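Exam revision sheet. Question 4 asks you to relate a sequence to its structure. Input first:
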Amino acid sequence: MNGVVPLGVEAADGVLLRLLRHLYLEVTLRRVDRHIAVRAEYVVACRV
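Answer key, structure tokens:
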């Protein structure tokens, strides 16, 4: 177990960061509901 703890902690931190980022983006998108289409177009433009 000792060898697994540091790895588990790092993995947990990464998961927490992803969850927080995901939740933040969800809340932000809900608040600016009108701009979702604009943001979607921006994301598509960035990927291209």
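Marking note for examiners. Residues 17 and 27 are 15 Å apart (CA to CA).
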